[in-house]
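Researcher: Good morning. I'm working through a list of sequences from a screen, and I'd like to move beyond sequence-only analysis. For each chain I'm collecting a predicted structure so we can compare shapes side by side. This is the next one on the list. No need for commentary yet; just the structure.
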Amino acid sequence: MHTGPRPRVPGPHEAGPEDERLPPARFAFDAWTWKEVLYLLSNLLTSLLGFVYVAVWLFAGVLLSVTVVGLPLLAAGLMGVRFVGRMERGRARALLGVRVDEPSPLPRGGSRRGPVGWVWRTLKDTVAWRTTLYTLIRLPWGVLTFGVTLAALFVAWPVLGHLARAMASADRAMARGLLSPSDELERRVAELEQDRGIVVDTAAADLRRIERDLHDGAQARLVALAMGLGLAKEKVLEDPEAAAKMVDEAHGEVKLALQELRDLARGIHPAVLTDRGLDAALSSVAGRCTVPVA
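Model: Good morning. Structure tokens for this chain:
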């Protein structure tokens, strides 16, 4: 009879090497052994449902891949497989005490947006594909564990604890190997792809901003300068003094245009904004505006 202190049974939400902290398999059943038996008996139903789901969407998606609905169907099926993986991780956590971290959600954004981008990112989801593999190999394993466990309950119950521990350990290994998050390299690649999309979007926004500033600032001033010089050319013979005054104004406009181009080259950040603040910067812009500002 076992008289020593009862080994500590880890809670279902504790992390770490669960198998090393499990109580040893014994002929006398305890709560942990019954949890493992329940998990093994439920393998048949869960693996059958998962296999049917994966087989249906995978067959339909591959069959229709030559049409416009094939790839979106595959992507939608992979999103459903992620849900299957979440359920399996929860079942393993509750009945086997194995803690498998939830994978990161599918990255959003990137260089490809819209439905096409979503389909592309989903089809490259390694977490969903590994869960698909897990679901496919679970059916024969579920049939085996269900049959062995059920037979041991009736004809070999003295060794059921050892059998349950051995098969449950294999289940723990499969859950950790195929349902765990991607490795660090895969996560880093996904992060870099997302960052690349952000950089591309930011660069495009900067280009649009520079184009707008050129159009509304230096370009408008140069157009006004060309018109002023044209008028001065027409008046140079009729009214030399007025023409000289217009040329002088055009010279000032050239200086202002050059200053605006310098500000643009410095990153659309006028020095007066840094040195004297927003009020002085707005006053400077209003003073250089070709349209009178009250």
